[in-house]
Amino acid sequence: MRISPTIEDRFKKSPTGDIIGDLFFDLDNNPSTGSNAFEGREVDKYKGYEARVHLPVRVITSGGKSSPFVAYEVYTHEGSFYGINTVDRQDTTSEGVLISHGPDGIEFAVRLDILKLALPATIRVMLAEQF
Asked: How far apart are the two ends of the chain, measured CA to CA in Å?
């Protein structure tokens, strides 16, 4: 995902953290199933999602210096949760590295078993971006 402002710009503006946004996955491509509630209120725009991927920018402090890191948290309609994060800005080829960020955006992979998605599948993905 290309994002603007960048992770570093977001960190400069808000050194305690930020939110890129949320991705909503309608895993059965059926708006009649799943949920349409987000942050305690019903939102028709996201009707039918079974999983939500929250994309926060967090802060790590080491040796008196603070740095941003990216994370994702997967919340399923059934209430299960899975989270992963990285401070690493470069290496997306190492085994187990599922998220990274650089000067123009973020790259991440969500494991299909976490989403409980069997292939082949047709899904809808909706983005709620925060600035």
From this structure: 14
1 is a domain residue = no
Residue with tokens 């790590």: 60
Q: Kindly write down the DSSP assignment for every residue of 34-46, as one continuous string.
A: SB-EETTEE-GGG
107: which 2 tokens? 């790259």
Q: Across-strand partners of 60?
A: 67
* CA torsion through residues 12, 14, 18, 21, sign: negative
Whole-model pTM: value is 0.78
pLDDT of residue 69: 78
- Which of the four pLDDT bands, split at 50, 70 and 90, describes residue 68? confident
Domain count along the chain: 1
What one-letter code names the amino acid at 126?
M
pLDDT at 86 over 60: no
Give the domain extent around 115. Answer: 7-129
pLDDT in the model for residue 96: 61
